[in-house]
Design brief:
mainly alpha, 77% helix, 239 residues, globular, 8 helices
Length: 239
């Protein structure tokens, strides 16, 4: 069993020891996810309130969030501490970038938030009802697509750094819209893999601290989904 989210891998559940007999549960993971989302909202509200002066905090949040995510991936036992810190850092980043998009396109943030949670709920219902079955081929397809997107990000950033403009990621062309929609779809399908992986962790009685780790992994995907929806809406507004 694998997840398209690099933060949620099978060995993370298998290679950890139990915390004094306490085990991971679905309800516990839901509670931890709610806590992390609350931290994100608090951090986002803070940088949002600062306006343009929040840019250093926004950039710092993005960098610190990336570092904390990498540390958490390799130290799942520390997730109870690292996951809230990651959520706070991402909140600073999301608050700043959301304010920037909102300044350019009024109402875009509310739309992005609604769409993000609507997609999450829809994916959860489709998963729980069995409409979307997490088969081996499904996992491999989403993992391959996620890797391709990561490669696309990297190449695009490098080319732009060296003065070779690659505008499809941002412009309002038909290709730009299709790329944006494709990335949103893959991010949404990644949520299904996250749900399946967390459920498997609870079923296999993973240690209690993995509730925080599972919530962290789900938050990683939600942040990705929100940012991509925000970007896609901006592209559509530029058309």
């Amino acid at each position: 069993m694998r997840s398209g989210n690099p933060a949620l891998r099978e060995k993370m559940f298998a290679a950890t020891t139990r915390d004094d007999g306490a085990i991971m549960t679905l309800n516990g993971t839901v509670d931890k996810t709610a806590i992390l989302l609350a931290v994100v909202v608090a951090g986002g509200a803070f940088t949002w309130s600062l306006g343009e002066s929040a840019t250093p905090l926004m950039i710092g949040g993005a960098i610190v969030g990336l570092i904390l995510a990498l540390v958490t991936v390799f130290n799942p036992q520390r997730a109870p501490v690292l996951a809230p810190l990651y959520a706070g850092a991402e909140g600073l980043f999301l608050g700043g970038i959301s304010r920037m998009f909102e300044s350019a396109y009024s109402g875009i943030v509310v739309q992005a938030v609604i769409l993000t949670f609507a997609i999450m709920i829809a994916m959860l219902l489709l998963y729980r009802s069995g409409v979307i079955k997490v088969t081996r081929n499904f996992r491999l397809g989403v993992i391959a697509a996620t890797g391709g997107i990561a490669l696309y990000y990297g190449i695009t950033i490098l080319l732009n750094m060296f003065g070779v403009p690659v505008g499809y990621w941002h412009n309002g062309s038909t290709l730009g819209v299709l790329i944006g929609v494709g990335i949103v779809v893959i991010a949404a399908l990644s949520l299904v893999l996250d749900f399946d992986f967390i459920e498997a962790g609870a079923r296999n009685q993973a240690p209690k601290h993995m509730e925080w780790y599972g919530a962290f992994g789900l938050l990683v995907t939600l942040v990705w989904l929100y940012v991509e929806i925000l970007r896609l809406l901006a592209i559509l507004n530029r058309r």
